[in-house]
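Long-time lurker, first post. I've been practising inverse folding by hand and with some scripts of my own, and I keep getting stuck on stretches where the structure tokens seem ambiguous. Below is the full token string for one chain I'm working on. Before anyone asks, I'm not after the true native sequence, just a reasonable design that respects the backbone. If someone could post their per-position residues I'd love to compare against what I wrote down in my notebook.
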């Protein structure tokens, strides 16, 4: 499972213990990390930062999905993702076209492939 970085929390894989740790932005959240930031900085090989939402480009995923379609469907979705509000218009249009499940399946497979690639890039074993 890929865990995304939230706006005020960074997530790291603790390679030694096999779990994840959450590093909050103390100014934004008011939470105290109790020395975790220093621990991460002092042990770079132990903690591996998971991908952020900015590294997983949702817009690109929508474009890739559109390329799997043909004709009017592709044209309508291509138009829908132009400009401000693209994500909402895309989701609405997919629903109106009756291809929501096709989109969700595509998106899940895309995330799966990203996760596998990320694990391979970092020398991590994974199970399906």
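-- Answer (accepted) --
I ran through it position by position. Result:
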């Amino acid at each position: 499972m890929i865990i995304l970085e939230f706006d005020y929390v960074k997530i790291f894989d603790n390679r030694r213990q096999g779990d994840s740790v959450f590093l909050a932005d103390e100014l934004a959240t008011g939470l105290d990390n109790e020395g975790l930031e220093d621990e991460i900085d002092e042990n770079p090989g132990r903690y591996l930062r998971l991908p952020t939402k900015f590294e997983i480009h949702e817009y690109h995923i929508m474009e890739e999905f559109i390329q799997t379609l043909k004709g009017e469907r592709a044209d309508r979705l291509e138009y829908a993702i132009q400009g401000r509000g693209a994500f909402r218009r895309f989701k609405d249009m997919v629903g109106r076209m009756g291809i929501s499940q096709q989109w969700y399946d595509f998106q899940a497979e895309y995330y799966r492939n990203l996760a596998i690639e990320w694990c391979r890039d970092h020398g991590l074993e994974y199970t399906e």
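A couple of notes from the structure itself: Confidence is low (pLDDT under 50) at residues 1-5. Strands lie at 9-14, 19-24, 47-49. Happy to go over any region you disagree with.
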